[in-house]
Amino acid sequence: MSLSVDPSQSEPKSQILSRLVHLWAMFGGVALFFVVAVNFLSSLGAMFGYPIPGDLELTEMGVAIAAFAFLPFCQLHGANVTADIFTAKASPRLIAALKAFASMVALAFSLILLWRMSFGLLDQYRYGYTTSILRLPHWLAFVPILISLSLLVATSMLTLRHSLHEAKTGGAND
């Protein structure tokens, strides 16, 4: 699959954003590895009567963090689900216009999520919600999720600009 935005062909700001998105996705991978390790160790411990307390809580938070961490990467690389059968014979200009529309939708949803999740963080912090067993504050998971959404906003703007340029130029890469 080709990149939606080729960072090597773009200006330094795009390259910096691309690097941040890649590093953040690696952070998501580390979070997912942590989840797998906790579940493995908890299962192993359960066989001997020593499961890890709060493993479900850590799994819930870790998977949420990881899932959100991968969103900007998917947007940057055009790795979201598409139905290519409908555009198999479409012109490059039409495909670029559809990609621009998809980037606008991604931008709108990421802005809405960022806005509402920010209030969610404030509520979780204000009311002191914690997990049942480990007593981890819920708001801790919101911090990396908001970073992910901020990167998704920036990446959606980048892919939108790139797709609009492609639609205007007929899909030709200048």
From TrEMBL:
<comment type="subunit">
    <text>The complex comprises the extracytoplasmic solute receptor protein and the two transmembrane proteins.</text>
</comment>
<keyword id="KW-0472">Membrane</keyword>
<comment type="similarity">
    <text>Belongs to the TRAP transporter small permease family.</text>
</comment>
<dbReference type="InterPro" id="IPR055348">
    <property type="entry name" value="DctQ"/>
</dbReference>
<keyword id="KW-1133">Transmembrane helix</keyword>
<feature type="transmembrane region" description="Helical">
    <location>
        <begin position="61"/>
        <end position="82"/>
    </location>
</feature>
<feature type="transmembrane region" description="Helical">
    <location>
        <begin position="21"/>
        <end position="41"/>
    </location>
</feature>
<keyword id="KW-1003">Cell membrane</keyword>
<feature type="domain" description="Tripartite ATP-independent periplasmic transporters DctQ component">
    <location>
        <begin position="47"/>
        <end position="160"/>
    </location>
</feature>
<keyword id="KW-0997">Cell inner membrane</keyword>
<protein>
    <recommendedName>
        <fullName>TRAP transporter small permease protein</fullName>
    </recommendedName>
</protein>
<feature type="transmembrane region" description="Helical">
    <location>
        <begin position="139"/>
        <end position="160"/>
    </location>
</feature>
<dbReference type="Pfam" id="PF04290">
    <property type="entry name" value="DctQ"/>
</dbReference>
<keyword id="KW-0813">Transport</keyword>
<keyword id="KW-0812">Transmembrane</keyword>
<feature type="transmembrane region" description="Helical">
    <location>
        <begin position="94"/>
        <end position="119"/>
    </location>
</feature>
<comment type="function">
    <text>Part of the tripartite ATP-independent periplasmic (TRAP) transport system.</text>
</comment>
